[in-house]
Every structure is written in structure tokens, then in C-alpha cells.
């Protein structure tokens, strides 16, 4: 069995809780989470030691030990992207396939540094929102999309990725500007592309389903509501990545997504003004 190592800010969180069983089941036992490291113990959460004891995973004292003893690496911290660069640095120099959970980086500069570090050391690496792999997106016609209106739940800082990622996967990386059009309680961001195409993301509370309306240049339209097991599809892609070392996500898309999210945070401070993207 190939051994996977977790590297996390703290281990008692939803992704770390779910991934081990999903990976073992989807890989038919070819892979399993064997080792883990947590940077901190958080009040109100199981300590890293308690969490590992509960899950039957060996807690190691350092990131170096996890990297050394594992075949594949997963950097978690899904809701604290500000720690990703620190937590992934040794993994990205290891040459071992490394997945970094969403949101990849807090800003474009960090995204570029992490990608460059992985490239320098020949480390296969990628990051994604699981929503990218929702079955409903697969048959969507990419050619001719003129506008997208996307809807979903959550807060901008850790859930906007789930709408921006599919938009970039469908419309490409030529976004040139963003404008904040929402409120504090209902964030909304307009993304303008270099050829005049546009997309909006809208975060309307936890009861809002992930969904998307698409308009095409020829007048056609389409509505997509995400109801499939996108986490299952994501885990299948993760296993394939570990076995092949080939990322399913182009780095240019990862950089574009990080750029949009960073600019979106800035745009919230000056609503209804365009913020240029690099």
C-alpha cells in the first residue's frame, strides 16, 4: 500500500476527517493515509494527537518526517490558505506528488512562488476546488460562452473558489478585471474578460445550491444545478494524479484563479469600481 502523509494547520477538520476513508475505498486499498502533522492544536477541537489516535494515523513531530516517510503528500488547511506556502515548502522540494487543498494561495504572488518551487524541484503538484469535477460540468459546451451567472453558498474568503474555479475551467484564463457588486451579507463579484465576456459569482447563504446559468453568443442558454457526488469525482482524480504524477489542472488556471480571488478581496473595499488583474 502506498502511504499518504497529511500536513495540516490543525487536523480536526472536515477534509482531514473524510479524505482517508474516501481514498482507501476509491483506491481499493492501494493507498492509505498513514502519517500526519498538525501545526497547532485549536481550542474546542480535538488535539492533533487525539485526532490521530481516533483515526489510527501516526502523528509525526515534523513536516520533514511526514515528507520523508510518505509516498504521496496532501497539504490540507482548507480554510486557512495563508498557511499553505509555509506548510507545503518542504513537500514542494521533495519530488513526491503533492496535492494542496483549496484555496491554493491567499494571493497571486504566493501562488507563483509555490508553483515555481515545485517546478524547480520537479515536484508534481496541483490544487483545485472539488467542484471542478462535478459531473454536470462535463457536457457543458465551452465554445461560445458569452456570460455566466454562478450561485452558491458560503463566505467569500473560503467558498468563492468553488465558483471561480468552474468559471475559469469553462471560460479560460483571459480575465482582465473584477468589480464588487455585492453586500457584506451577500457577496457578488463581476469578472470581466479581455474579449468582453463576463461572469458573476454570487454567495447567497448556506441554503443556496451550487448552480450556474450560461448564455451563449448564438442566443442559446443553459442552466446547471450541481447535484452529483463531486467529492467522489475529486478523489478519483486525486488517486489518478498520485499514480501518474500528471496534474489535471493547468497551472495557468491556478494562477488566474488566485489573481481573481485576491483582486476580489480588494474590490470589496471599493464597490462598483473595476480592479485590473495582472
Automatic annotation (TrEMBL):
<protein>
    <recommendedName>
        <fullName>Gfo/Idh/MocA-like oxidoreductase N-terminal domain-containing protein</fullName>
    </recommendedName>
</protein>
<dbReference type="Pfam" id="PF01408">
    <property type="entry name" value="GFO_IDH_MocA"/>
</dbReference>
<dbReference type="InterPro" id="IPR000683">
    <property type="entry name" value="Gfo/Idh/MocA-like_OxRdtase_N"/>
</dbReference>
<feature type="domain" description="Gfo/Idh/MocA-like oxidoreductase N-terminal">
    <location>
        <begin position="50"/>
        <end position="123"/>
    </location>
</feature>
<dbReference type="GO" id="GO:0000166">
    <property type="term" value="F:nucleotide binding"/>
</dbReference>
<dbReference type="InterPro" id="IPR036291">
    <property type="entry name" value="NAD(P)-bd_dom_sf"/>
</dbReference>
